[in-house]
Amino acid sequence: MPSRVPQHVSLHRVAGTELQVVSDVESGLGPLIEVEKEVIERYATSPRWRQESVTLFVLQDLRPLSQQLSPHEATLPPGGLAGLDQRPIVNVYDLKRPAYCHVFVNREAMEKEGYWGDREAVKALLAHEHAHPLSECETTRSARRLKADISAKGLQPLFPPEAQAEGWLTKLDRLLVLMVDKLCLYAPREVLANDVTIESGFVAPLLYLDRKNLRNAVEGLRARSTLRQTLQDEVKTERLTPAGADLLLSIADMKGYLDLAMETAPFYRQNREAEGRELEGLLFGEVMPHLEPAVAEAYPRLRDAYLGLVEDASPEVLLQWEGSLLGILAGVLNAKGLRLECQLSVIPE
Fold first, then answer.
1. Does some domain include residue 288?
2. Is the pTM of this model over 0.90?
3. What does residue 153 show for φ and ψ, rounded to 5 degrees?
4. In this predicted model, what pLDDT tens digit does every residue of 93-129 receive, in sequence order?
5. Residues 169 and 268 in one domain
6. Does 215 reside within a domain?
């Protein structure tokens, strides 16, 4: 797969699973391979485990992977190929060949997020990615058959007449698509993968990772302040209206923080209430007070919707469930002067 010259190639046998490691980096590789072995050993005790062969690619970045995949690859996370460079780890697998999977580790993204060299965080990330093929069910199959056609109309002047030339409308459309993709269409796969991760005994690593990400979210509030100032500067130069700036900040809050509900809901779903309450204590104590109130109010509604996700949903049933998620998001946007119109449909087989 990698187009670069491999610096490391090795073959291992772990609890009946063949593990091949291919890497174009050398430093820090040993500990990561050991963690991957531990993850496979634990999963191998589960009746869900069906992997006969795992290929672990540890790459400086994921550009070699991007060059190999189709833009519409069904197993890709939100953002598709364009979002791969930001993904620390991704599992690419063929639904028709459940015994095989390919796990790609993005060292550049891992270092950016502070995961590289953090053994517990690496274990949680690997365990979560391995959970994706193990959590495949009727609901995940149904999720792949849903599509959303999005349009948005301003209920008040959000952008000046020259907004199209400035690119604001294009940016708005892209943000809305990414947000709906992430919080609605992809949510079933993320929630169910976290379910399997917890169910399979990776509670402590996943809780550690979620704590770390919440601390990062607190630090990220500084970036939010910078964004607010940037938007206010655009208002001063009349390239953006105050209502438009308020809307864009709210969308940034929704996209950046509401996905935490996909992390907390699985703990409750798996009867790990103490862990869920701990994470939400930090979330409501240190993050939500700094966000737009409507966004903070949307979080528990979104979490509760994730709590109600079932594993045997037909496309038609899941479409109704997705509609409830869209209603939550649309309510926030409507309060900010934007009417989100989204037509959900089932793609014929």
1. yes
2. yes
3. -130, 135
4. 988 998 999 999 999 999 999 999 999 999 999 999 9
5. yes
6. yes
